[in-house]
């Protein structure tokens, strides 16, 4: 490995310059094409491309792809227009229990709402966005606090072959307060980065590396169950989204009369819920997994995501691009999920 994950020094300009030099030797020159998709910390773009166009798959698209699958909590997608004409369906779905409403374009937990009835739902709907209404599961608690796991999925394109990889060392995110299955206090049941946290603590204090968390808090049997279910979910996700990404990429370049770059890559962040029996459920799919500093993303949380993005890039993606004879990695924490050939 090039660095230790806990070593702050690796997160610096050295690696950017290092790989730019290597890319230049292979004729992969730096460019600042603003038409390309910004994929966070992979911001030293090269002419090989650096993001699949128009493929930040929003929550509604993800829901439509995965609905009726056992790994997705019971849910429905809706618009305000649909909701106005389907009050009974919404009330039957909620059944007077706390249910989670999500805006498909939300960032950092700003548009996640606990709802109990039709009126609650209508209060948060607007005419511009799609929404998902999702059943709340009985969560696994750590010292009385709810958690979920962020896992990273890397999609890479070489010529017409699209491959998916997961980086197993994700991180566990904790809610800010003791869990309660009643009320609307976001701090007690939401693990999003912007969900309320104690005023004297930084959001980064509520994030733990998955490996460390499992070793300290989970039995070997449940560790195995956790890892296997994560692998199963990520395989299903990869199998379903790669054909979509391939189709959209081809449509984008053909409609814009552009030649598709030989290489493209994009990093997604997948959030997995964990219930009280150590079963994992797909929570949501993030097209930009919190690697850009801005007013929404707290610096400490963003840095945690950026460390993972950097590590994936340095340990896998850059060597993959530079080593024309070897397309795989020896790092056991990176697992190939499958591939799709777009003819």
What order do the helices and strands come in, and which of them pair?
Layout: H1 13-25, H2 59-66, E1 75-78, H3 80-84, H4 87-94, E2 99-103, E3 112-115, H5 118-124, E4 131-135, E5 141-142, E6 145-158, E7 161-174, H6 186-189, E8 207-209, H7 210-217, H8 220-255, E9 263-274, E10 280-286, H9 299-322, E11 334-341
Antiparallel strand pairs: 1-4, 2-3, 2-4, 5-6, 6-7, 6-9, 7-8, 7-11, 9-10
Polypeptide structure, described:
By secondary structure, the chain is an alpha+beta fold. The chain has 2 domains: 8-69 and 140-341, D-amino Acid Aminotransferase, Chain A, domain 1 (2-Layer Sandwich), CATH 3.30.470.20; 74-136, ATP-grasp fold, A domain (Dna Ligase, domain 1, 2-Layer Sandwich). It has 9 helices and 11 strands. It has helices at 13-25, 59-66, 80-84, 87-94, 118-124, 186-189, 210-217, 220-255, 299-322, and strands spanning 75-78, 99-103, 112-115, 131-135, 141-142, 145-158, 161-174, 207-209, 263-274, 280-286, 334-341. Strands 5, 6, 7, 8, 9, 10 and 11 form a 7-stranded antiparallel β-sheet that branches. The protein is globular. The two termini are 35 Å apart. Mean pLDDT is 77; it is low at 1-12 and 31-47.
Briefly characterize the structure.
33% of the residues lie in helices and 23% in strands.
The CATH architecture classification of the largest domain is 2-Layer Sandwich
Largest sheet: 7 strands, antiparallel
How are helices and strands ordered from N to C?
Answer: HHEHHEEHEEEEHEHHEEHE
Uncertain stretches of 5 or more adjacent residues: 1-12, 31-47
Radius of gyration: 20 Å
The count of helical stretches stands at: 9
How many structural domains does the protein architecture include?
2
Portion in strands: 15-25%
The general outline is: globular
The CATH homology group name of the largest domain: ATP-grasp fold, B domain
Proportion of residues in helical segments: 25-40%
How many strands?
Answer: 11
Category from helices, strands and their pairing: alpha+beta
User: What's the rounded overall pLDDT mean?
Assistant: 77
Distance between the termini: 35 Å
CATH top level of the largest domain is: Alpha Beta
- Provide the CATH topology of the largest domain: D-amino Acid Aminotransferase, Chain A, domain 1
């Amino acid at each position: 490995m090039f660095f230790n994950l806990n070593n702050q020094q690796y997160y610096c300009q050295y690696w950017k310059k290092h790989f730019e030099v290597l890319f230049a030797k292979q004729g992969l020159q730096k460019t600042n094409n603003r038409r390309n998709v910004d994929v966070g910390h992979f911001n030293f773009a090269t002419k090989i491309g650096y993001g699949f166009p128009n493929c930040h798959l929003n929550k509604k698209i993800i829901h439509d792809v995965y609905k009726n699958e056992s790994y997705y909590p019971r849910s429905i997608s809706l618009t305000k227009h649909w909701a106005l004409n389907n009050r009974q369906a919404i009330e039957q779905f909620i059944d007077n229990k706390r249910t989670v409403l999500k805006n498909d374009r939300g960032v950092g937990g700003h548009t996640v709402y606990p709802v109990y009835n039709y009126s609650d739902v209508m209060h948060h709907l607007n005419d511009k966005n799609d929404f998902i209404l999702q059943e709340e599961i009985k969560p696994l608690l750590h010292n009385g606090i709810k958690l979920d796991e962020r896992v990273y999925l890397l999609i890479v394109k070489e010529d017409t072959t699209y491959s998916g990889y997961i980086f197993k060392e994700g991180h566990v995110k904790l809610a800010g307060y003791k869990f309660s299955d009643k009320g609307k206090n976001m701090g007690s049941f939401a693990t999003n980065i912007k969900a309320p946290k104690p005023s004297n603590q930084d959001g980064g204090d509520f994030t733990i590396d998955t490996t460390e968390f499992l070793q300290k808090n989970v039995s070997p049997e449940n560790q195995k169950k956790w890892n296997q279910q994560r692998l199963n979910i990520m395989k299903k996700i990869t199998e379903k989204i790669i054909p979509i990404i391939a189709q959209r990429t081809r449509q984008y370049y053909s409609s814009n009369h552009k030649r598709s770059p030989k290489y493209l890559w994009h990093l997604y962040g997948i959030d997995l819920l964990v219930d009280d029996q150590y079963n994992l459920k797909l929570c949501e799919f993030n097209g930009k997994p919190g690697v850009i500093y801005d007013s929404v993303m707290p610096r400490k949380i963003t840095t945690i995501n950026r460390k993972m993005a950097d590590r994936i890039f340095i340990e896998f993606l850059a060597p993959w691009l530079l080593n024309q004879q070897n397309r795989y990695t020896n790092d056991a924490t990176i697992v190939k999920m499958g591939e799709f050939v777009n003819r």
